[in-house]
Amino acid sequence: MVSIEDYGAYETAWCPGCGNFSLLEGVKRALVMAGLEPRNVLFVSGIGQAAKAPHYLNANVFNGLHGRSFPVATGAKLANPGLAVIVESGDGCMYGEGGNHFLAAIRRNVDVTAIVHDNQIYGLTKGQASPTSEEGMKTKTQPGGVILERFDPVAVAVAMRAGFVARSFTGAVEHLAETIRLAVAHRGFALVDVLQPCVSFNRVNNFAWYKKRCRELPSGYDPSDWTLAMKTAAEWGDTIPIGVIYRNDRPPFESHVPALAKGPLVGREVDRSALAAEMNRIGGAHGSD
Q: For residue 85, what are the CA distances in angstroms to 55, 61, 137?
């Protein structure tokens, strides 16, 4: 039986009080509740303090380019559908540099789980505004205040009818762990936008700010109701709803790929004679030009 200890304990490079600590704990709890052994889990991340999170887990890890986690995760899931593939990085990496990949992953509905450390700031590069920073927020690179409206990843995901859209908060670890467990269990694209404080560079959206506003969705809330989900996703201010905001059962991308009808690509034998014949055909065609 899998345990928290199976996922290891490592010294981190995070600041004391960082929300990443609680998020890491929530991820471990979720994987244990799901009964997933480390060898059956793949984490794919980009660049940033949040992207370091998989470094502190005993599991399969691919640490790639800034904002380019989803293409790697998609390839891994298509090749080996038996893996639980989790994309984990920060709001800048996922929604800024990786914005187009984020949208494409939703459209494709690939069976991966995206866990986003949303602290509304770039932490690794010392405090410039991220796509989710509040309008008017003053930072080192926006001393006069952010002039752009805040990007709302939850509302965008719901609007695009993503398979599973949720928000949680590192100040509610049990809620966070259960939300991640549900996301990983969902067959299709799943987003968990996790609100967390950056104690070094975001002095506005601190722990107390989130704690005062985050409210769990009421019992009886229906996440299959798209109109209700859009209204709920738009709530941001004095009250911020957390929980599974929207969910549907549209078939994942993998179910539409003919090459996977015979099973996973991983472990499948290569027909070397057919490959040699194709290479000879291509070589012969080029030689006749």
A: 15, 10, 35
